[in-house]
Each structure stands twice: as structure tokens, then as C-alpha cells.
Amino acid sequence: MLYPLTTLLLLPWLLWQGRRVRRDTPRLPEPDGPREGLSGSGAPLAVLMVGDSAAAGVGTRVQTRALSGQLVQALAQRFQVRWQLLARTGDSSADVCDRLAAQSPRPFDLALVSVGVNDVTGRTTLRQWHRHLQQLTGLLQQRFGVREVVFTAIPPMHQFPALPQPLRWYLGRRAGQLNQALAQFCRDTGGCSLLQVPFPFEPGLMASDGFHPGEAAYALWGQHGAELLADLHVKALSDAPSGALSGVTPAALAE
């Protein structure tokens, strides 16, 4: 009862702070660079990255220094990676579902998803959040043939420098609630995994706006993401039926 009551009492102050943050926080552009490509050598691996401004790489100037570039560079050391990035600043989980539904289907082995921050700021309810996670997973698995959907945990918004108190506390608490629901969803849903990156939130880790990741954060995210995706892919290859072509994935066969 304490959290809803405190929220109600602070609502006018929270709304005023939210408007001020939107007004005063610098609007960083999405970085330049390709959003799809082929890199590396070895067993084929097709990866789709979808989501919000963090997935799009806001906080860096070029995609090679953003999440997509860091992830692909790490994976390309072991695999021939065919990759595509579908992300846009401001997208919530519902927006990502709409974008995927409008996209022409193309097969991928794995998907890395970054959503949640805009659901926190947009006051998505827990019921809506769960429904959007179901829709998003279904779209990736059924329309794009994704074998494993990897959701990145919502970052600890209570540590975002751009957010003043008590707004920082409120959004951090809400992010924690959506994260708990996301973790439970991944435990209950086949073909879903949760990626939790141990961001230390040291000086310089965040972008200049105090809201998005900086290059160091994207490097850490890409490293941990690549490790999990590689493990999932290798396990899938090892679990393939006897007699299957070694190193060839379902997505590769569909091309």
C-alpha cells in the first residue's frame, strides 16, 4: 500500500518533473551507419536486434560503437553473422510489435530485444506489458522463425543521472516491477531468455544526456549479449537431430 499511496501524493510533483526532464534533456540523434550486414566467418548465424533508442544506439555517433556494432563484432569472431537492426527512438513494447507486424518476414536464428524504458515512462500497466511480451515473442518466433528470443533487462533507472528525485525513485521502482514480470515471463515461456548486464554505472558509462548508454556501456552490453547468444546457438547446434548438416541453421537453410 505504501507505494501506491506515495505515488498518489507525489503525482503533481512527478508530472512537473517529468515535463521538465523532457524539456531540458538533450535529444541525441540515432547514430549513422548500416543497420544490416554480413560479418565474420564460420558457422552461419542470423541475428535480429529490435527495440528502442538504446537498441538503435543513441548515445554514440556511429553504429559500429553502438550495441549492434559491438554485438556483431564479438559474434563475428566465431560465426558468419547475418544481422539486421530494427529499432527506433521512443518505441515502447507495443510500438515494437507494430513495427514487426509491418515488416516483411525474413528468417533469423536468434533475436535480441531492448524494450521497457518507454513502457516505464509511458505508464504501461503490468497486464499490458505481459500482453505485449507475448505478442512480441509470437511475432519473432512465428513470422521470423526465431528459435530463441533474448530480452535485455530494463536498466536500473533509479541510477539515471538525468532524472531528479523523487522521479528517479518512482521510475526506478516501476522499472523494477516490469523487470520482475519480464523475468517471470522468460521463465514461463519456451524459447525466451533474459540478459542481465552488470552495468557498474561508473562515471563515463552514460551518454552526455544522462539517460542513454555511452560507448563503454554498449561495449559491455555487446560483450555479454554475444556470450549468451553464442552459447544458445552452440547448444542448438549440438541438440540438432543426428544427420543434420553441421554448422547449418534453420535460418540459413531458408535463405
Automatic annotation (TrEMBL):
Keywords: Hydrolase. It comes from the Bacteria. InterPro entries: SGNH_hydro, SGNH_hydro_sf. One of its GO terms (molecular function) is hydrolase activity. The keyword Hydrolase applies. The keyword Signal does not apply. Residues 50-220 form the SGNH hydrolase-type esterase domain. It holds the Pfam family Lipase_GDSL_2. This is SGNH/GDSL hydrolase family protein. It comes from Marinobacter xestospongiae.
